[in-house]
Specification:
Length: 369
């Protein structure tokens, strides 16, 4: 008997992860490969988180705290909200899935940008919903067009700010104007995975947008500046009512003991966050300068990566850099994304990129982004 697969699942394309460093080195017979593909903190986790992990490892015969009590309480205190407003997830990706599970029925619509974090569309299609993708405008979310795309069937609207993969942001005043046009039946999801890297003073302070009469949820993660990507833990802050529905569909023990323990310690290490932010900003300026010297113009970024039009087949550039032991991300067409790494890694990327560009033919207009 053939499998019965829902059409939306049939059309899904599995997420394509980047090559692990050890596998790339094995395939190419090289050593010293570097990964600048996944927007990770090159400094690694907080030393306080590492110390906490070592102690927590002795308790792994026990199930984790199913409600992430201590971490939830600490997050509520940090952001001056109630514990009932905080939802902890297996990465913020899981909270995206919980939103789909809790609030979408088959055929319901979700508005998002057409060039943004891929998990929005994958989660919506996996939940038998309908993604409504709105083109970016000058590489930024077109908030007015996104508001216009709302219908009676719209249930969620995702704003990735700063946006992945572009690194661009929308401002506080733009968000205020946008929210004034959003009907009450739509939950607006502000995904701020890169919040701690932002330096622009016009960035919205999204906590203030959460109000009992306004359906908004804010997503944050410990995977980026906190350096805990391998443990998969993130959180959402919203109204008690929305959080309550998410808790109903959240699996018990969804976040493990090590993740909760490390996140709690990392949250208390503001020095590590400040050091990580300063390194990122300094090295991003160096990368921007180096790319411009090669005739490229990266988009202005408020995250920990740069999005660059290489004016060539981006896949060819990606493959050529891979042969040099440098892992970046090809997004589409002539666009690549490179994570800001350690100083030596960034210099090595620029040094390898120059001959790659010289050897790769310029793209035709139809190939560009």
């Amino acid at each position: 008997m053939p499998l019965s697969i829902h059409p939306t699942i049939e059309q899904l394309v599995p997420y394509s992860p980047g090559k692990p460093i050890d596998e790339l080195e094995r395939e190419l017979g090289i050593q010293g490969a570097i990964k600048l593909a996944s927007n990770e903190n090159p400094l690694g986790p907080s030393p306080k988180a590492i110390a906490a992990l070592n102690k927590a490892a002795l308790t792994l015969n026990r199930y984790p705290d199913g409600g992430a009590h201590h971490l939830t309480k600490a997050l509520a205190a940090r952001w001056h909200v109630l514990s009932e407003q905080v939802v902890v997830g297996n990465g913020s990706d899981e909270i995206i899935s919980l939103l789909v599970k809790a609030f979408l029925s088959p055929g319901d619509e979700v508005v998002m940008a057409d060039h943004t974090f891929v998990m929005y569309k994958l989660s919506v299609l996996g939940g038998h919903g309908v993604p409504r993708e709105v083109p970016l405008k000058h590489w930024r979310h077109d908030l007015a067009a996104m508001a216009d795309a709302i219908t009676d069937r719209t249930r969620l609207l995702f704003v990735c700010n700063p946006n992945n993969p572009t690194g661009t942001m929308v401002t506080a005043s733009e968000v205020d104007d946008f929210l004034a046009h959003i009907p009450d039946h739509v939950i607006v999801v502000f995904d701020e995975a890169y919040y701690e890297y932002v330096c622009d003073p016009t960035f919205p302070e999204s906590i203030r947008l959460i109000h009992p009469n306004r359906p908004v949820i804010l997503l944050r993660t410990f995977s980026k500046i906190y350096g805990l990507a391998g443990l998969r833990i993130g959180y959402g802050i919203t109204t008690p009512k929305i959080a309550g529905y998410l808790q109903r569909v959240r699996p018990p023990f969804n976040t493990n003991t090590l993740a909760q323990t490390a996140a709690l310690a990392a949250l208390a290490d503001d020095d590590h966050v400040a050091t990580s932010r300063a390194l990122n900003r300094a090295e991003m300026m160096m990368l921007e300068k180096g790319l411009r010297q090669l005739g490229l113009e990266p988009l202005p970024s408020q995250a920990n990566f740069l999005y660059v039009d290489v004016n060539r087949d981006g896949k060819q550039v990606f493959d050529a850099l891979l042969q040099e032991g440098i892992i970046i991300r090809h997004i589409r067409g002539s666009m690549i994304r490179v994570t800001v790494g350690q100083p030596g890694e960034n210099s090595r990327f620029l040094q390898a990129l120059e001959p790659v560009l010289q050897k790769t033919p310029l793209a035709s207009v139809g190939m560009l982004s």
